[in-house]
From TrEMBL:
Domain EAL positions: 459-710
Domain of life of the native organism: Bacteria
Domain GGDEF span(s) in chain numbering: 316-450
Residues in the signal sequence: none
Organism: Amycolatopsis pigmentata
SMART domains: EAL, GGDEF, PAS
Protein name: Bifunctional diguanylate cyclase/phosphodiesterase
Record-annotated PAS domain positions: 161-231
Length: 710
């Protein structure tokens, strides 16, 4: 085992299953391409080691890119060492790794996974190519040594050595020539005649240097002279042989002087590099093109960006279209993987047709993402027209095995970026613009806006820094009172997140939740905040604590376990915890939030619903759930603000409050900023209220009036 490849620990059980499956699939595919002198079980074990290394390389920090490339290149070398050198061995390897690595949940969370996978596969291909070249060279060196040894044996057994030499010459794929001191060919094989495309009878008797380009002849003659007069025993150089039709062919020329001969003779071997060059070209093409669609990949596209941006017309510039196919996973899951693959290929072909009349580069840059860079001209259609053509082309059904499938696309557009925008920055801009388009729904498009991009970039930076800020204590739990409107007394306190971020100021609870939702941190951060709130309430107050859950928290299958963990060992009765769940998650057809709510109600945890806007169907559904309170949607509270003298508005809200209260549930309103608003909602029948009119975002003991906390 290669020590550098063995430096990894066994994969955990959860992730180990997909690695074993990938190694097994890899072993099966590669054994169909070449004979491998290994038992199948041993081959699977060796490939499993390489899969573990691949996972380690993909999860390495970007700062270790050189290390990662070296480890990935060693995988290619190992494949050659295991004799995985069949015509399709590398293609099958890149195909199976490219598909499976992008699909694994363990890796999907990694930022920039497609780019990492492309880079790693390119390094594997490079390592494979280099190892194959070295292997071929070693084989030829071995043959060269055999030739020289055979010639030396002629003094001991001339007849036997000549027979063996003739056999090797006939079987060798490389050209072999024996020349005298003047360089005239005394003997050659058919492979040499094939390389120079000259019959054998026209080669014998001619100088070997006659079959090289004139520029190489002086250098070759000098080398042969040094062999005869100097200490050198052999040589190997890259030179150009010339064919009968005048075409030059690159070859490796190896030679040796047989001094035991009288007169002395030279043995020269010509290795035709054409096949190796074709293999290297094919590997390079595969590393820069997508296996499934055969379109250029992200790496190639980035290179083209570097070339095209400086050449853009200063007046018209370029436009980058970044597309994401809508519901592609649904189509692939419903119609099958083959249909999904056909749809991808057809989408690429149709996009090529859309941009056929333009100077454009099309690439597949993600699982279901495409990018098109257009060098605009005076006749280039505007962005709106082009986006319309894209979706018009994609929505035409494609029939696969009798099933008609089609899709649409969300598109992020960067139009005429500044001339100093670099390739990576341009791609980042298009990706973030595409993300904004996806947030609007399906078949949407968005144009890059520097202001919105700056806000998105700031949010991304804050979201990325959030784990460190949490660990360093910048994020804390604060509270606001939940007031009984009839008497103005606290009914509970609601736990909130607050982030005191240097250079940004204090970030509100809503901003903290939105940022944590972007990265998935909300589950662990929310669990911590819940436990923190339960501990403080148990120590300093006898009022209930309310915790509002984000959509991700509410739909988390482990919600009940998280709440029980927060209560464990604290001594706080479950009845003093009230959770507020978004109505949208309770209505979700998956039913995770509703099921968790029922489990929590069974152990005494209170529950309320946020985002209720008065729909009769929603109210009817709530009758099926153990919910004790309803938070009116913020827009209903905002609707009233400044319109207390509008009879139609007030009458509708009063009716809504009456209907909800008649169902036996309390009404909670938030966002109360003035005493007048509080009075109106109290008279309308609302039970509880929150907002700046009552104070918010304070330490618990300060909120409760503890002098020691002031």
């Amino acid at each position: 085992m290669n020590p550098s490849l063995a430096e990894h620990s066994p994969a955990p059980d959860d992730s180990g299953r997909w690695r074993v499956k990938l190694a097994r699939k890899w072993a099966y595919l590669i054994t169909t391409t070449a004979y491998l002198p290994l038992p199948h079980a041993e081959l699977e074990d060796r490939l499993l080691e390489l899969v573990d290394v691949l996972a380690t390389v993909l999860m390495a920090e970007p700062s270790g890119q050189g290390w990662s490339d070296q480890r990935a290149a060693e995988i290619g070398s190992r494949l050659v060492a295991m004799h995985c050198t069949g015509p399709d061995s590398l293609r099958r390897t890149l195909d199976v790794l490219g598909r499976d690595l992008l699909a694994q949940p363990e890796l999907r969370r990694l930022p920039g996974l497609p780019e990492r996978v492309v880079t790693v596969l390119g390094a594997i291909a490079a390592g494979y190519s280099e190892a194959l070249r070295v292997w071929v060279f070693e084989q030829q060196e071995s043959v060269n040594g055999a030739f020289v040894e055979l010639l030396r044996d002629t003094n001991r057994s001339l007849a036997a050595s000549e027979a063996r030499f003739d056999l090797l010459c006939r079987l060798s794929p490389d050209g072999v020539a024996v020349t005298d001191r003047e360089g005239r060919v005394l003997h050659c094989n058919s492979a040499l005649c094939r390389i120079v495309d000259v019959p054998m009878d026209e080669v014998i008797g001619h100088r070997l240097t006659d079959f090289f380009v004139p520029a190489d002849v002086p250098g070759l003659e000098e080398i042969y002279e040094k062999l005869r007069t100097g200490p050198a025993a052999t040589f190997r150089r890259r030179r150009c042989a010339v064919r009968r039709d005048g075409e030059a062919t690159e070859v490796f020329v190896s030679g040796a002087l047989v001094r035991e001969e009288d007169p002395e003779k030279y043995v020269t071997i010509l290795e035709d590099e054409t096949e190796l060059s074709l293999l290297q070209d094919r590997i390079a093409h595969q590393s820069l093109h997508d296996v499934e669609t055969r379109l250029p990949n992200r790496q190639y596209f980035s290179t083209q960006l570097e070339k095209m941006l400086p050449r853009a017309d200063p007046e018209f510039g370029v436009t980058l279209y970044h597309l994401d196919l809508d519901a592609f996973s649904v189509i692939r899951g419903g119609a099958g993987h083959h249909a999904g693959l056909q749809l991808l290929r057809e989408a690429g072909a149709r996009l090529a047709d859309v941009f056929a009349g333009e100077q454009a580069t099309l690439a597949r840059v993600g699982a279901d993402e495409f990018a098109v860079l257009v060098r605009n001209s005076a006749t280039t259609p505007n962005v709106v027209t082009m986006v319309g053509r894209i979706n018009e082309a994609l929505t035409e059904p494609l029939y696969v095995e009798g099933k008609g499938v089609a899709t649409s696309a969300c598109v992020g557009v960067v139009h005429q970026p500044s001339l100093d925008t670099g390739p990576e920055e341009l791609l980042r801009n298009s990706e973030m613009t595409l993300r904004r388009a996806r947030a609007l729904g399906r078949r949407q498009w968005a144009l890059f806006d520097p202001g919105e991009h700056a806000r998105d970039t700031e949010d991304d930076a804050l979201a990325a820094a959030m784990p460190g800020a949490w660990e360093s204590g910048e994020i804390t739990v604060v509270y606001r009172p939940v007031i009984r409107l009839p008497d103005g007394r606290p009914a509970a306190v609601e736990a909130l997140l607050r982030w005191d971020r240097p250079a940004f100021g204090v970030l509100s609870h809503e901003r903290c939740v939105a940022l944590a939702e972007r990265t998935g941190l909300i589950l662990s951060l929310g669990a911590w905040a819940m436990r923190q709130a339960c501990e403080e309430i148990a120590r300093f107050s006898d009022v209930p604590v309310a915790v509002s859950l984000s959509p991700s928290q509410a739909s988390d299958p482990d919600l009940a376990a998280t709440v029980l963990a927060a209560l464990e060992g604290i001594g706080l009765p479950s009845e003093r915890v009230v959770l507020t769940l978004p109505l949208s998650e309770l209505l979700d057809e998956r039913g995770e939030a509703a099921e968790s709510l029922r489990v929590l109600a069974d152990i005494g945890v209170g529950a309320s619903v946020a985002g209720f806007d008065g729909g009769p169907a929603d109210l009817a559904y709530l009758d099926e759930l153990p919910v004790t309170a309803v938070h009116l949607a913020p827009r209903l509270v905002e609707t009233l603000t400044g319109r207390e003298d509008r009879p139609s508005v007030t009458r509708a809200l009063e009716t809504l409050v009456e209907v909800v209260r008649s169902s036996g549930r309390q009404i909670v309103v938030s966002g109360i900023e003035t005493a007048g608003q509080a009075d109106w909602w109290g008279e309308a029948g609302a039970d509880l209220a929150m907002g700046s009119a009552f104070g918010e975002g304070e330490d618990l003991r300060t909120l409760l009036g503890d002098p020691a906390a002031r």
